[in-house]
């Protein structure tokens, strides 16, 4: 039921993830941020076992930080993606992590890039990728409308089309999504798409 | 005769063979006797000098287990020094851990380093021995970041520093991972001091030969701190401190001239203190600053340092002139 997808545009990469934290039939919260900012110019959008997801992405984030302190320069997106894949691969035949990851990043030399890393340590560099049941719908929609070198507005339009498709066709569709973007100016939150908001105060 | 027997005696004690001819053995026996008795002689200064590590600890060799031919009475003091300064895990009868004290000697030979804590700024300044022309100075940074809000400078064995810094950096990230919080300056200081202490109580290892100055701002409270650790594993917080070469003179200067400062004044105080023992000029000093507002450590450019040094010199000159001025009038 967790939907994560992303694509690469002209000098930027964009990822969207649903924001429901679910345990069997209960929805714990509707605003769980599943896209972690790895460092100034990298994002990890993760889906899978909630415990593994948090544990693994934080572990990767701290190791990426450590590399930067030790060496004075940040890891490239490719290096970070390969490190992540390596950790998943090492754990795979002992106690595997059940986490699927889309890693988006911006490097000065390589530009914007997106990496597809699944829970059995498959690594692909892609222009568009998706995980979860929502991938059936978002991948097809992206296949139909994606062009290389889209502008931010066009990319957001495509993301919204995917979210619409997921909401209308997936039986238990997540109500809310968060969209984050990474480009030469860094990694940041771009927008939320909310159809259900947590009630914070009781109406009098 | 004397020279020859001296050579023979030395070869004996170094266990080299063949030693020499029989005729020299008598003379050398006498030499050995006098050598081992020197601890009791009146020439204490000479004895001390040649017991020191720089001079090869020559006087101490003679008190190793000797060949039966050279058996002679050995003085109590000399025997102590020999037995208790080899292994780190052994106390001497008068309560010293000699290896730790020797490590402190190593620190005293290292580059001078100064740390000053201001109200909203912390500064580290380190002496930079003249860089060889062909060396890339950026690879020999003496002041390093442990995390975004903590920095470290050290005096002593640089290779030991690398190991300690690496472990500290891992601990900073590990703390963030397990506790979801950045380290406080005191925590990471305690960790580094703990590591240094561990190596004074294990078999087969030697202490780290360095003292560190650790500065930073605590997360959330943003209180500035300066800590110092040494090879024995003790640590304490300071308002300003120095370590390494001539640290005593720098500390005296700081004690005389310290006052609560902020931003640029703190930087100036640190540089002024370091200039007491270092040749003036931007290329002989490395300075790094951390402020409460900005995150991260800022290394000052050589040009910036030169400007500040020029300001300091001008202030000094003005102070000198002011002192002399009134006297001339009367």
From TrEMBL, chain A:
The protein's role, per its UniProt record:
Non-catalytic component of the proteasome, a multicatalytic proteinase complex which is characterized by its ability to cleave peptides with Arg, Phe, Tyr, Leu, and Glu adjacent to the leaving group at neutral or slightly basic pH. The proteasome has an ATP-dependent proteolytic activity. Component of the proteasome, a multicatalytic proteinase complex which is characterized by its ability to cleave peptides with Arg, Phe, Tyr, Leu, and Glu adjacent to the leaving group at neutral or slightly basic pH. The proteasome has an ATP-dependent proteolytic activity.
Protein's name according to its UniProt entry = Proteasome subunit beta
Listed under GO biological process in this entry are: proteasomal protein catabolic process
Q: Which family does it belong to?
A: Belongs to the peptidase T1B family.
Gene3D superfamilies on file: Glutamine Phosphoribosylpyrophosphate, subunit 1, domain 1
- Keywords on this record? Cytoplasm, Nucleus, Proteasome
> What InterPro entries does the entry give?
Ntn_hydrolases_N, Proteasome_alpha, Proteasome_beta2, Proteasome_bsu_CS, Proteasome_sua/b, Proteasome_suB-type
User: Partners and quaternary state?
Assistant: Component of the 20S core complex of the 26S proteasome. The 26S proteasome is composed of a core protease (CP), known as the 20S proteasome, capped at one or both ends by the 19S regulatory particle (RP/PA700). The 20S proteasome core is composed of 28 subunits that are arranged in four stacked rings, resulting in a barrel-shaped structure. The two end rings are each formed by seven alpha subunits, and the two central rings are each formed by seven beta subunits. The catalytic chamber with the active sites is on the inside of the barrel.
Which SUPFAM superfamilies does the annotation name?
N-terminal nucleophile aminohydrolases (Ntn hydrolases)
Provenance organism:
Brassica carinata (Ethiopian mustard)
Q: Where in the cell is it found?
A: Cytoplasm; Nucleus
Per the record, the major location class is cytoplasm
Q: Which GO terms describe its cellular component?
A: cytoplasm; nucleus; proteasome core complex
> Pfam families from the xrefs?
Proteasome
TrEMBL record, chain B:
Where on the tree of life does the source sit, at the highest rank? Eukaryota
What SMART domains would the database entry show?
Proteasome_A_N
Recorded GO cellular component terms are: cytoplasm; proteasome core complex, alpha-subunit complex
UniProt keyword annotation of 4Fe-4S present: no
Q: Which InterPro entries match?
A: Cyclin-like_sf (IPR036915), Cyclin_C-dom (IPR004367), Ntn_hydrolases_N (IPR029055), Proteasome_alpha (IPR050115), Proteasome_alpha-type (IPR023332), Proteasome_asu_N (IPR000426), Proteasome_sua/b (IPR001353)
Which SUPFAM superfamilies is this protein grouped with? Cyclin-like, N-terminal nucleophile aminohydrolases (Ntn hydrolases)
Asked if the keyword Cytoplasm belongs to this entry, the reply reads yes
Residues in Proteasome alpha-type subunits domain copies: 84-106
Share an example GO biological-process annotation for this protein.
Answer: ubiquitin-dependent protein catabolic process
What family classification does the UniProt entry report for this protein?
Belongs to the peptidase T1A family.
Q: What is this protein called?
A: Proteasome subunit alpha type-4
